[in-house]
């Protein structure tokens, strides 16, 4: 398993819609393993393939935060929201592609998601709380959307300017 570099906004790849996975290959399994390793190392609770420069509909997540609780790594391929609750929730979201920037985003409180697992078997689950926020955030990545796209233009521009500066600083290292 390899920890991969995470793209930092603004990067044009983060704004592209990813095509669906058509073939379940050993390379796809390796990508999923690398992404889980990268997410845990970051540390984060979710990571979408375009964040590591892979333009494919794959995301990983694990929202278990309790001390001593068993991790629950999930790999979702071609995920699709099939139902959303009318009730909304607001969470302070962050993103591994927008380090150290956080903002409140309102999303449906519960969602049902259908996807294929790493073996190509259909799965479906209803998520709530942090899991619901995370899965929606990661699916947004697969559709070329970032959490800052939900913010007012001025706040979004401020964050983007900070990321441009961060990228310049990192390039000098």
Structure described in brief:
This protein has 173 residues and is an alpha+beta fold. It is built from three helices and seven strands, in the order αβββββββαα.
Descriptive account of the structure:
By secondary structure, the protein is of the alpha+beta class. It has one domain: Peptide Deformylase, CATH 3.90.45. Helices cover 29% and strands 29% of the residues. The chain contains three helices and seven strands, in the order αβββββββαα. Strands 1-2-3-6-7 form a five-stranded antiparallel β-sheet. A two-stranded antiparallel sheet has the order 4-5. The protein is globular, with a radius of gyration of 16 Å. The two termini are 25 Å apart. The mean pLDDT is 96.
Q: Helix and strand layout, with pairings?
A:
Elements: H1 26-41, E1 46-48, E2 58-61, E3 74-84, E4 88-95, E5 98-108, E6 110-116, E7 122-128, H2 129-142, H3 153-172
Antiparallel strand pairs: 1-2, 2-3, 3-6, 4-5, 6-7
Keyphrases for this structure?
173 residues, alpha+beta, Peptide Deformylase, 5-stranded antiparallel sheet, 29% helix, globular
SSE string: HEEEEEEEHH
In CATH, the topology is named: Peptide Deformylase
Q: Which second-level CATH architecture applies?
A: Alpha-Beta Complex
Strand order of the largest sheet: 1-2-3-6-7
- Please mark out the parts with pLDDT under 50 across 5 or more consecutive residues, or reply none: none
| Strand residue percentage | 25-35%
Residues in helices, as a percent range: 25-40%
Number of β-strand runs: 7
> Under the CATH scheme, which class?
Alpha Beta
Main beta-sheet strand count, sense and barrel state: 5 strands, antiparallel
Cα distance spanning the termini = 25 Å
- CATH homologous superfamily (4th level) name: Peptide deformylase
On the 0 to 100 scale, the average pLDDT is: 96
Tally the helices.
3
Class derived from helix and strand content? alpha+beta
Summed up, the domain count is 1
Rg calc: 16 Å
Overall geometric form: globular
């Amino acid at each position: 398993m390899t920890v991969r570099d995470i793209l930092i906004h603004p990067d044009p790849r983060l704004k592209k819609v990813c095509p669906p996975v058509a073939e379940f290959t050993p390379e796809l399994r390796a990508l999923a393993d690398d992404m889980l390793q990268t997410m845990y190392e970051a540390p984060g609770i979710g990571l979408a393939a375009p964040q590591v420069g892979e333009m494919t509909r794959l995301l990983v997540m694990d929202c278990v935060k309790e001390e001593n609780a068993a991790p629950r790594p999930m790999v979702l391929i071609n995920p699709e929201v099939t139902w959303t609750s009318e009730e909304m929730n607001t969470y302070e979201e962050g993103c591994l592609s927008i380090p150290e920037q956080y903002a409140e985003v309102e999303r449906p409180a519960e969602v049902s998601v259908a996807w294929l697992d790493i073996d190509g078997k259909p799965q479906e689950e209803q998520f709530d709380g942090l899991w619901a926020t995370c899965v929606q955030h990661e699916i947004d990545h697969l559709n070329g959307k970032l959490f800052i796209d939900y913010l007012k233009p001025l706040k979004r521009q401020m964050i983007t300017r900070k990321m441009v500066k961060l990228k310049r600083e990192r390039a000098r290292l």
